Automatic annotation (TrEMBL):
Residues 17-259 form the ABC transporter domain. GO terms for molecular function: ATP binding; ATP hydrolysis activity; transmembrane transporter activity. Keywords: ATP-binding, Nucleotide-binding. This is ABC transporter.
Length: 259
């Protein structure tokens, strides 16, 4: 596509994520977004906000290389994600993590096995599918990760016997067990009641801050975005309407994204 050639090559940078000229459409529908430029510095916690359907999840997936943009480039942890493959791609995956709207645990397996799955990006093979086969260091790491989210006592419980809040904590433990440097969270509290959502968000943010993980998260909760994000990226009409420090963004500016 002509647009692709118009995008300048990405410069070497201290940013963990750089997006230049990103565009995406599905089929013949209008583009979800186009010409998106932004970068995220190491250790930043960025809230991606915007109305339903503005393309937040699509953008997150482009940033992680899960879907290809139609135009533009993404550099993630210094790698051009369109150009790396094989072991280099697996190594990059191992340094990144994803917490989704749905926790996507394997229901019939134990909590501990599900957390061990977070190490699959680093070490593949059936030994990492169930806790009984997993190497001892993997079991120890998974248990330590469960301790951080306060659920070590549920390590042997089946995942389908957890509450929604507990499941999301397990998903966070799974995302953190491999000690990622860059984490994407797509509405991590979407399915939780306000109280559980607040607890999970506070826990998640305290863990990522403590471990120095760079985070890009989406939320429909304006208060969460403003209080947990260092920076706000706001999408509207396929463009970036806000790219500013959270302290400089007023609730009124945020509200204008949803009109
Ligand atoms: N795989 C797909 N095929 C076709 N259209 C898609 C696909 N994924 C997303 N879309 C469309 O792209 C647009 C953006 O969707 P996306 O899920 O990225 O928005 P969002 O901002 O994350 O929405 P929400 O806040 O409701 O979760 C929507 O119009 C959606 O229907």
């Amino acid at each position: 596509m002509a647009l692709d050639h118009a995008v300048p090559r990405l410069a070497a940078t201290a940013s963990d994520l750089q997006a230049r000229g990103l565009a995406k459409r599905f089929g013949t529908a209008a583009p979800v977004f186009s010409g998106l430029d932004f970068s995220i510095r190491q250790g930043d916690c960025v809230a991606l906000v915007g109305a339903n359907g503005t393309g937040k999840s699509t953008l997150l997936r482009c940033c992680l290389g899960l879907i290809a943009p139609d135009a533009g480039q993404v550099s993630l942890l210094g790698e051009d994600i369109a150009r790396i493959a094989g072991p280099a791609r697996r190594a990059l995956r191992a340094r990144t993590g994803l917490v989704g709207q749905k926790h996507n645990l394997v229901p019939r397996l134990s909590v501990l096995s599900n957390v061990i799955h977070g190490l699959l990006g680093q070490s593949s093979g059936p030994r990492y599918w169930v806790q009984g086969l997993a190497p001892e260091p993997a079991r120890r790491a998974a248990l330590a990760s469960l301790e951080k989210v306060g659920l070590a006592h549920l390590a042997l419980r089946r995942a389908d016997q957890l509450s929604g809040g507990q499941s999301q904590r397990v998903a966070i433990a799974r995302a953190l067990v491999g000690k990622p440097r860059f984490l994407v969270a797509d509405e991590p509290c979407a399915s939780l009641d306000p109280q559980a959502g607040e607890e999970v968000m506070a826990l998640f943010m305290s863990l990522v801050k403590r471990e120095g993980v760079t985070v890009l998260f989406t939320s429909h909760n304006v208060q969460h975005a403003l209080s947990y994000g260092d920076r706000i990226l706001g999408l509207q009409g396929g463009r970036i309407a806000i790219d500013a420090a959270a302290r400089d963004v007023t609730p009124q500016t945020m509200a204008a994204l949803y009109v």
